[in-house]
Structures are given as structure tokens and as C-alpha cells.
Amino acid sequence: MRKRVEEEKALVVHPINRESVRSIEEMAKLGMPFSILAKNQQTWLIRGGLEYFKEEKPYLYPLVEKLVENRDRAIPEGDNMRSIAKEVRKKLGWDEEQSALVSAWVERILRWKIEPFHVKSKKIVSVARALKDVIEEKYRKNPEGYRYLYKSASEWVKWNERMKMYRKGCKDDDDEG
């Protein structure tokens, strides 16, 4: 209990919620680029979040430090989540009204906020596949710049398809019994 109170005090000094801290931890463990973090997370890490990890979670500090050190290894110049989402939306042929929804899904898919294991929504899966295709095209032109985004998107789609096949297999087994 005392540790939690101290942790909350540390988070109050540098305003960010626990969910954001967990997200940073996961991105650091996956070795993702700094730019995949939300702007408030990036700012928090630069302005004192790194100290938080050094003091409160020293076992994660080397990974988070590496994440911050590699911030120049971001999404290549002239590209960002919004522009990638716009390309995904165009690829799907969806209208402008759905751009905010597509942007949110693209960001969540790349950060694995939407887990591929439980998604059954055809719209989210179609966005993920289109995202993988868009990033794959960019990856072919600039492998070093898009390596991490390509890894994230392709792994998401791969796991979603595996779970789909698993669920399908389970249904077939249930029918027999």
C-alpha cells in the first residue's frame, strides 16, 4: 500500500496515468521506436519519467533508457500516425467521416492496445490488414525506417489470423461432439 502511495506521488509530480506508464513499459520491452509513444508520454519521459523508472522500476530502466536514446529512430521524416492512417483509409475506400476512427484504430493496433487475440470485428481486422499493406510498401522503400512498425503490424495480423483459425478449429471440434 505504501509503495502504491509513493508511486502515485511520483506520477503526480510528472502528470501521467498508470495506464500510460504500463504502455511505455510494454513498448520498451518490445523495442519499439520512441515515436510510437503518444506525445504526452514522450514529454513525460524526457522531463522526468526516465528518473521515475530509475528510482521506482530499476529493472526496466535500461530498456526505457534505450527507448529514449533511440528517439531519432522514429517514424521517418514527413510521416506520422495521422498520415499513415490517411493512407489506410484511402486503401480501404472509406470516406473522410471515418478518419478519426481509422486513426484511433491504427494507433491502437500498432501499440497493441487492441489485442489481436480477441478481435472479431471485421472492420478492425480490415484496418489492420490495410495497415500492414501500407507499412509493407513503405518498408520496401525504406527498410531501416519502417522496420519496427512493419514488425508490429505484421505480428498483429499474424496473431489475429492464428486465433481466427484456432476459434474455427474449436467450432469444428464442438460440432462433432
Helical segment count: 8
- Overall pLDDT metric: 76
Q: What is the molecular shape?
A: globular
What's the domain count? 2
- What's the main sheet like? none
Q: Total strand count, please?
A: 0
> Which regions are unreliable across 5 or more consecutive residues at pLDDT < 50?
172-177
Order of helices and strands: HHHHHHHH
> Which value, in Å, is the CA radius of gyration?
19 Å
Share of β-strand residues: under 5%
Q: Can you walk through the features of this model?
A:
The protein is mainly α. It has two domains: about 1-70; about 80-175, no CATH class. It has eight helices and no strands. The protein is globular. The protein starts with a helix and ends with a helix. Residues about 170-175 have low confidence and may be disordered.
Features:
177 residues; mainly alpha; 2 domains; 73% helix; 0% strand; disordered C terminus
Can you give me a brief rundown of this structure?
The protein has 177 residues and is mainly α. The protein has helices at 2-13, 18-30, 39-56, 61-69, 81-92, 99-110, 122-141, 143-176.
Note the topology.
Elements: H1 2-13, H2 18-30, H3 39-56, H4 61-69, H5 81-92, H6 99-110, H7 122-141, H8 143-176
Helix pairs in contact: 2-4, 3-4, 5-6, 5-7, 6-7, 7-8
